[in-house]
Amino acid sequence: MGDFDRELEAIGARVMEVLEHLPAGDSITAWELKFKVKVALSPLYLALGALQASGRIRIQPDGLNYRIHPAAVKAQPIAGVPLEITSPTAGRS
To answer: How many CA atoms lie within 13 Å of 3's alpha carbon, on the beta-carbon side?
Structure first.
């Protein structure tokens, strides 16, 4: 892995840190990210593309800009394990 690849990974990690601190369901523009991450737009867009390709973020066009959303985590079913755990006494009076 070259220096540029490591730089893009570092930018991606900083982007994910910013997204982790957003309120649930919120997003941020690429322009706002540029200033929070303190990086030029070209490497930021490359890092965002890699994050989107890996499924860690969603990118949505917003006029002349893009809104960056953390990817939604969906519960994956596991054989024999219910997605919701209920108390054995639930519903009893």
So the answer is: 0
Rounded distance between C-alpha atoms, residue 68 and residue 34, angstroms: 12
- For the chain, give the mean pLDDT: 83
Closest CA to 21 of 38, 33, 8, 5: 33
Q: Distance between CA 15 and CA 47 in Å, rounded?
A: 9
Q: What is the pTM of this model?
A: 0.73
Q: At 59, which amino acid appears?
A: I
- CATH architecture classification, 3-70: Orthogonal Bundle (1.10)
CB 59 within 8 A of CB 48: yes
